[in-house]
Amino acid sequence: MHLDVLMMSVLMRLVIWVCCVLPVKCLHSELESWSPDDYSPLHNMLLTSNGLRLIITGQTGVYKVDVANFQLFSKLNQSGISNIIHNRTATFDYVTVCSNQSDSCLIIDPLDNCKEYLSELKPQIKIDGVKAFMATNTRGAERNQNEDFLFVGCPHVESQEKLGGRCTEPGISWYLNSGKDKSDPWYGFKSYKDTPVLTDKYIDAFSVDKYRVFFSLQRVVATGTKRSRIAQVCQYIDQKDGNDSTPYTYADMPIQCGQLKEIRAVKKVVFKTETIFVAVFSESSKSAVCAFTMKTITEMFVENIKDCYRGIRVPENEDYADFQSTDIPCSRKIAENDTFEKPDDYFLCNKDSLPLYRQVIGKKTMYLQPVVDYDDAELTAVAVSVLGPTVFAILGTAKGEILKAVVYPSDLAAKVKKPRRHNFGRDIHDIYISPDDKHVFVLTRKQVFKLPVQSCSSYSTCNDCTHGGHCEWCPLINSCGLKGVCIRKHGMIGYDKCILGEIESPAEVSTREIQQVKIRFLESLLPPREFRRFTCSITLLSDDGMSSTSTVISFIIINRRIWKLDDSSIQEIEKRTKGTMNASLARDNFSLGQFIIYNCQTITRLSLCTKSNRTCKWCQNNSQSHCIDSEESCNTSGAEVKAGECPRVTNYTIISDESSVPTPNYTVYISQDRDTEIIVAGINLKEAVSVTYKCKIITDTQTLWLKSTQLDEGGNITCKIYKDEMFTISRHVDRLEAALQVVWGDSPLGDTLPIIIYACENLVQPSRNCEQCKSFASYQPYLRCHWNGTRCIDSTTTLETTECRDPEITKVYLLNIYPNDTTTVLTEGVNLDSVYIDTEGVTVAGEPCIPIAPLSEPGLQIWCDLSPRSSVINDSVVITLENNSTVWTSDHVRLLIPKITSMKPTSGPMSGGTSVSLYGQHLDTGRDVTVTIGDTACILTKKIASDNLFCKTEGLNSYTTTDVTSEVVVKIDGAKVLGNLKFTYLEAPFIKEIHPKTSFASGGSILTVVGRHLHGIKMPKLYSTTEHRWGGNTVSELQNCTKPNGTVDLHCPTPRYPGKTVIPEGGVFTRLGFEMDDVPSVSDYNLPSNVAYLQYFPDPKLKHINDVKSSERFIRIEGDDLDLAADESDIKVLIDCEAYDVFDVVKRTIAFEIPADRPVCSKTTDLPLNISVQIGYFSQTIGSITFESNRSDLTETTMPVSNTTSQQKVTKTAPDTTHQPDESNSTKTAVIIALVVLVVVIILFAGIGSLHVYRKYRAMRNQTRDIVEFRTFQNEESDERRGIRTISTVSYAYARYTSGLYDYIHDADVVNTYLELSGEDPTYTKADEYVDPHPYRKLDNDVDQSEIKNDIPVNDDSENKMETNIQSEVMGIQDGANELGCDLDGGNIDPVYTPRNGKETSVESMSSANNDENIGECSVNIDGGYIHAVWTQEFDPGKREDKFENSKKDGPLETTAAKFDWAMVETTPKGIAPEQDMDVEQMDPVENEEFENGTCQENIGTTCGQGFEAEEHEGK
Fold first, then answer.
1. Fewest CB atoms less than 10 Å from the CB: which of 484, 665, 910, 1093?
2. Where are the alpha helices (DSSP H) in 435-582?
3. How many angstroms separate the CA atoms of 799 and 801, rounded?
4. CB atoms within 10 A of CB 576
5. pLDDT in tens, 1073-1098
6. Can you spell out the DSSP letters for 1423-1459?
7. What is the pLDDT of residues 24-73, one digit of tens each?
């Protein structure tokens, strides 16, 4: 790598670091959570009207959670709370909570900072399923007197009359000013024991003007079926007597959404002037959403109340109202017909207070079609908000998923596409949307979550972005953001629709009429007045969808709203249109519309050319038919077909002469051994004058053209199929699927006729199976076959004999016996009768086996059911045929009894994904094996063995709050296998906290995972994800977690940092996730950010320590930022093979007490031992220690300890990106961004300037390279043949770069010198490129470095064997070290500290003095880690002679390389890893063995100067 490239790389890395790494605290933190510290269950949630507080009730208290920072504000200790009432009226805004373990409800102020309640409300509400609210009624002449009423809906509960409180009787009651006594009369239901219909629970209740509306779920006692009803009470002041109207205004009726009757949740929203109730209905895994308007509800109530006036009411066996008097409502018709003309309000509020028309139990159903429905989700919760012209709903499911949809108006209703769904893994109880429509609050049994209403940035297209209503599209930057973000951040108008205008053109247009296509822009999106040309893209998609083309076209202005295509665009579209294509126009993700365009000249099909609305016609010939424009003429030799006159086939008729008989599904069977005629009828069939008709048969391998095709006078075509032609079919025929088609000239006419071609002799298996052939006449009469004594033939052939040979049984499948169920037995054979065997025709070991006719095939196989048995069968199978003859098996049939004896594990999460192993006997003898746990399938994952099978659990269809234990049932061929095993579905794991929150880059720090139900997972695993600013993410490797004894927590080691960039000193935030079977709520996407974040810091850099003596007693190890991600418990000091704890860690120092004795594993040696520091997976060798023999006799010394207090691990909180900054923070942010941009600009200019200067300097230097400069070492030495020998050496390292395998040398003069020194002709020119064909071997870390030779080729051909290299003995050691350290970086030869001499030693290849500075400029890994030749040449004063010699053992290269075994490399416990220094001589023997065997695959890090690079070594 050239230095300028290296400089550019460093410059770009610096820019990326400034731009991307400085703001590392932009961790994706869109999801937050809160949960009680005691893990107690949560029941209800309420968002205050101002959106500042969440009031959450749980098993142990009432919690006030601050919405902004999502932290607990205060807690009111009160156990057993299950009901919550929002006391929002015209007079106050409080919350009432009720406990089943208290005598009174508590009224609290949601905004109050104190933990106490304001007052008590008596009597108490003590049962579940209650819904209540406060409503204000106004009275007085000036309507300024407000009265607050408490309305309570109480369901049926067994023995509720004994519980006390407000719900001793079921029904709807109300109380003035929340008083003790309810209004009288009130709307009550029959008691729990007396009613035919029970109200199981009230779903929700609302106040709308003067109407009080209740939604409930009911159950019919007799059948157990569930249904939903809606009730209303009209509350107004009677102007006559000043009394309340409520005693006589109750009515209810069924409510239904599509086919679903079970309501699960409902929320109210006001859209413009309408009140809308968005309700979700669910049954099993099917769900639907309906949007009921108050208007449609009141209209249906009026219909039911009018029926009451007509004397119509539900039957007595469905009537659950307690009349509280002897007058039965709706028992008499009203006489005055004028009553029905009165306004709706008269009926809804019973303005005449008629006792007979009260408590109306209506029959007519409030029914709506769903606006959206789901076939794979059970909806449990809903929240709604108004977004512009639509009502937007967020839906929760029983499995914890969040879904979104537009639900009103119905014509705009649709599901909102979401790239990823949040899944919290547990039943969602309730959902609220903040008043500003920015956040969603989700209540589950264990947690409350806060997340954005919409993650707009996840949408990549305009249509997806604007579909939900929360987001807008920023066109100039093609990105999606929340509404208002485009103008606020980017200074542009954002669009909430992706339509700029519409196309004005016919639905289908010819290329000759393309000028008719115009664009009409929407009034609100007109182009600027100065625009005269508008460009957009057009995409043309072929009608078969197989090909497409796109280009840019232009429109020119007619007026500001209407634009037309310019001439060049018309020509481009004509050129690209092939046949018929679907055209769509768009600009910047904005749609402009679609239309169909066709080019008559390129249409290749008759039917497409002659469509009635096209301006084309078809020229039909016997070959080369084509389509032309309607204004053109065909040649005289062919037929002309105009638009709308396309000939086509309408019907096929088989001549009924026994040649073929259609099957019940009208498939035509044609025998290969007989002639067949088929008559084809059609329309617009023209006379065959110059263009002929032909019939053909098409198989999967060939096309057979029939010789005889005729068109009769009636306009029908007759296709004659001769048996001689059928035998030309090349493939084997038994039941060959084919098709018959009529062709006119070269144009197919209409659809094909499916046929099956058969040959009788190939239908029976084996060919001697006479009875099977005979059975065709009875059971498959469309197969015209019979038996002629030796084979099965077509029935037109003369019979020789019909006698069949004796029957025989060829195989009985070894099926299982089931003591508690029937056993299915399959017997196969030959000639097993041509009719079905009767009920007593088969016995197994003397026991009757009842034949199963639908499965059996006469003559070939018999299926039968054997009654339950308790013992193993070991006897013959006997079949009695129709003629009373018998056939039996020669060998006994042994039928075994399968059993299931054990399984593991016996529990797993409700979400499924648990791998279950079942063990038993004889499990592999059946054909079909299924496993179920209760009603849930367990999917087989491996091939079944005799003694085991494996399956993976599916998730439960619905989430429950308690563990579910179910029977495990194994069935083989539909019969249950013996076994009594149970599997328990456990509640999904819940993770509350993970600590610590930091780790070094190498990972390995132990995290403690705190939560519930964590041990229910067999093999939990942890991973880490880092998100890239430019999109996408990187996931780390999985880490296995352990389950410490005596705790409910998990311990998980942190993985190595998954990112590819360098971690800055400030650290980088990532997200943690878990693999726990199929539990979705613990993934990195679904874990809340305040739980899941992990901050990585760079690995510490430890300083080397000089030789340590054991007499020193204490050592201090210095490094940078040691306490950022570690404390004393995380750090271990290793002396040789034994690990020791440290006793103090401060920011830059580790304090360690030297052990008194040498490690046990090193007792046999007195050599110095390596000292390493290990922090998780990070490990570095920092020096060595020498143990003295008389350590115990030495005077004890004490090491002074630093005054700095030992610090604990630094835990930094996750950045709160959801908090909206104030204006001052925005200003500060803008200033910071401006400074960062300024720094980036300065760096860029400085870097570019430096690079420019350097390149000019380098260009000047290159001008002097016409002559290769090389160093000549002259040394006089004695020689027998000559007196003086001159040795010259040249280094060419500066003139080459590496490809990893070859050297490329571009400098012609250098190469010529190279060739000249090697004895070859210097004919190389600058136009050539010299490629050294000899790849050089890499250095193995385990070989003796002293044996490494320069430039020894890997291949062993004779030429290479002649090439040996020598190097100068007088070459400077330091000069060689500097070059080799750079040139051979991939070989892991580094300048390192050498304990033997206390100096730094390095190795380099030989270089000339003039090129020393060039060699010094070489970049890291210049040649990929290969050692190259340093060529030498001997000069004789009188004669030139070339040869190559090996370097001497004492040469500087070999001398230094021999010391390489003292080089410091970085290792991990598994081999070599980043940033660990370790003496090679003292490496673990296991590690050396890995190197020797070539199995080490860890990262090997080396240094060259100040550079650093890691290579993946995979066994090299």
1. 665
2. 462-467, 485-489, 567-576
3. 6
4. 17
5. 999 998 888 988 888 888 888 999 99
6. TTTB-----EEEE-SS-EE----PPPTTSHHHHHHHG
7. 334 444 788 898 988 888 889 999 888 888 999 988 889 999 998 898 98
